[in-house]
Amino acid sequence: MLDQHLLDLLMRSLDGDLDDTDRTMLEKALSESEELRKEKNKLIRLRKLVGSGDYQFEHGFTDRVMNRLAKLKNGKSIEFNFARDLNRIFMRVAVTGVAAIILLLLSIYLTTGSVSLDSLSGAENYSEDNVISYLLIEK
Predict the structure, then answer these.
(1) Global pTM?
(2) For residues 26 and 10, is the Cβ–Cβ distance under 8 A?
(3) In a domain, 65, yes or no
(4) Residue 96: C-alpha distances to residues 90, 102, 103, 107, 108 (Å)
(5) Partners of 77 in beta bridges
(6) If pLDDT is split at 50, 70 and 90, which confidence band does 83 have?
(7) How high is the pLDDT of residue 17?
(8) Angular region, 18: left φ>0, alpha ψ -120 to 50, beta rest
(9) Do residues 46 and 89 share a domain?
């Protein structure tokens, strides 16, 4: 396993950004490590390849990539239909909300014995006199 500092020095040496101390350290490490020399050769070959611009994709590469992107699972095409997807999500949320409201109404019915407006607001236990006195009390 190569030392990260030596790899950094090697990369910088290819750009010519080393001072004398770092250059001496790198040369010593290169003379002692076969793996570091191989890495240097790989980097030099890679630079030549990328710098020369000799790499090309085969004919039809773009079409093959786009066709593969158009297929997802089992050869089915990917379809982006925002309205359909939004409707599907809304239906899930709406069904969950309706179920929650039904459970709330059921729990109110079981605890109070009725589902009137007063039982929903929790005001069925208060008389008009009690409500007026609660509103007039200063805290």
Answers:
(1) 0.38
(2) yes
(3) no
(4) 10, 10, 11, 17, 18
(5) 71
(6) confident
(7) 76
(8) beta
(9) no
Three-class SS state of 71: strand
Confidence check: pLDDT of 58 > 80: yes
- CA gap 123, 131 in Å, rounded: 9
Provide the sign of the torsion angle of the four alpha carbons 84, 86, 87, 93, taken in this order.
positive
Q: Tell me, yes or no, whether 49 and 9 share the same domain.
A: yes
Residue recorded with tokens 């002692």: 32
CB-based burial label for 30 (10 Å; 0-12, 13-18, 19+): middle
Cα-Cα-Cα-Cα torsion 6, 7, 8, 13, nearest 10 degrees, comes to: 90
| 77 occurs within a structural domain | no
Domain interval for residue 23: 4-55
DSSP three-state, residue 77: strand
Q: In total, how many domains does the chain have? A: 2
